[in-house]
Amino acid sequence: MDRFFVRNHTLTPRIDADAWRLRISGSGLRGGPVELTYRDLRHLPSDTITAAVECAGNGRSFFTSQQGQTVSGTAWKLGAIGVARWKGVRLSTVLKRAGLRRAAVDVQPVGLDPDFVTGGVNLGPVRRPLPLDKALHDVLLAYEMNGEPLPPDHGFPVRVVVPNWIGIASIKWLGQLEVSAEPLFSPWNTQFYRLFGPAYPTDGELVSRQTVKSAFELPWEASLAAGRQVLRGRSWSGNGRIRRVEVSTDGRTWRPARPIGHGPVWQRWELPWHPAPGAYTLRARATDVTGVTQPETVPHNTLGYLFGAIVRHPVTVV
Ligand SMILES: Nc1nc2c(c(=O)[nH]1)N[C@H]1C(S)=C(S)[C@@H](COP(=O)(O)O)O[C@H]1N2
Ligand SMILES: [Mo]
């Protein structure tokens, strides 16, 4: 867990689990507002899932280094993803107990961290609506990460975990669920986490699902010894499983990588390689179950989200 990336809009709040409440309210409920304590949540039927949290901006720096484009936000390479075992209560369990109206369409989890202020404007607490069908499908309200209470940085006492969707959907330090019979809006689905750029509509395109990516299990600008090597890496996709991975070490030809096991999120793989000394650019491209293959380039978007193109990994062989 000490190697799991942290991405905060403001600061990690310190929350007392005994004083914590989850407030559920809104026009999508049959009755009035409902409150749950930490104990209440712990006593509901639990579920455990293995899922990634991956920032929409994972890979953002490659828009600039590979495509020469300007983007704003943290210049991540491929480290803005972590996979953990999450234990908690299904959001569907909590919502059904609270009593949903048939007309309910959206659920908005709201964080307990300080309000997000940017450019002199207070945008309020970090929050982003989820469509009800996703909320009822596979979303977890997690209180444990890898068998221990959530660490403060990852959302103690309770966070949302939304499998396959961009990280902002997985609201940390959950304090409130707004259930609505009307579509909900927040700056996190109108202003941020949309694709803006020449290839997209003027009001942008909403980002929800993650894209396909591959990474070598090597340091950036790795140095390797000439001779017998085995290259290893992993690929993953918000669309589901990985069907095929190909690797190129010479900038021209592609060889199929050999899959290793089948993890619940990553597909690990390997490939023998016998390089002579010199400078190389390694490339890996995955194809997922929906037939999406990582392209050479992706269309520019100003906020640098969803970099799913093939990453060129520099390696020196000595
Ligand atoms: N309340 C709250 N939830 C949040 C955020 C935040 O700033 N506040 N950041 C989001 C973003 S942008 C990402 S990528 C993930 C990161 O989760 P992690 O820090 O546990 O890796 O949390 C999401 N949930
Ligand atoms: Mo993020």
Automatic annotation (TrEMBL):
Domain of life: Bacteria
UniProt-listed CDD domains: SO_family_Moco_dimer
Domain Oxidoreductase molybdopterin-binding residues, every copy: 9-188
Keywords: Metal-binding, Molybdenum, Oxidoreductase
InterPro entries, alphabetized: Ig_E-set, MoCF_OxRdtse_dimer, Mopterin_OxRdtase_euk, OxRdtase_Mopterin-bd_dom, OxRdtase_Mopterin-bd_sf
Family matches, as Pfam families: Mo-co_dimer (PF03404), Oxidored_molyb (PF00174)
Upper taxonomic lineage: Bacteria, Bacillati, Actinomycetota, Actinomycetes, Micromonosporales
Record domain Moybdenum cofactor oxidoreductase dimerisation: where: 227-306
GO terms, biological process: sulfur compound metabolic process
Listed SUPFAM superfamilies: E set domains (SSF81296), Oxidoreductase molybdopterin-binding domain (SSF56524)
A GO MF term: heme binding
Name of the featured protein: Sulfite oxidase
Cofactor: Mo-molybdopterin
